[in-house]
Design a protein that fits this description.
The protein is mainly β. The protein contains no helices and eight strands. The protein has a domain of 81 residues.
Length: 119
């Protein structure tokens, strides 16, 4: 499957869900370039490459959301990462401080798709 390049050309308003297809035998690399913008949402790539995985280039950008993948690499000068659990649970920030209330829940993936195991 090679490399899947995603380039953000504007700020996202509502949370956006990006799903990357794959399987045990076909595992793509994902390069997500924020290009100075703010992304809100989920990058769902549980079958991404185990070594390269999901690479987020966020120079002068903000990533606010959740990444699901086997391997994740975050890069970028003057970047901000705010981890918001849109999949289920409480909000938190990159510094570990609480950014939400204990009762706030997102969308939860209850049962994995057939042939996929949660590790």
């Amino acid at each position: 499957m090679g490399v899947i390049n995603i380039n953000l050309n504007t700020d996202t308003g509502r949370p956006l869900i990006i799903c990357i297809a794959g399987s045990d035998s076909q595992r793509p690399q994902v390069h997500f370039n924020l290009n100075g913008h703010t992304f809100k949402g989920v990058v769902y790539a549980p079958f991404c490459d185990k070594n390269e995985g999901v690479l987020v280039n966020a120079g002068n950008s903000t990533f606010m959301g959740t990444i699901v993948g086997t391997s994740i690499s975050l890069r970028g000068n003057r970047s901000s990462y705010k981890y918001k659990d849109y999949i289920g649970g409480d909000d938190s920030s990159g510094s570990g401080g609480s950014a939400g209330s204990a009762g706030m829940k997102g969308t939860r993936l209850v049962t994995p798709p057939q042939g996929m195991n949660w590790d």
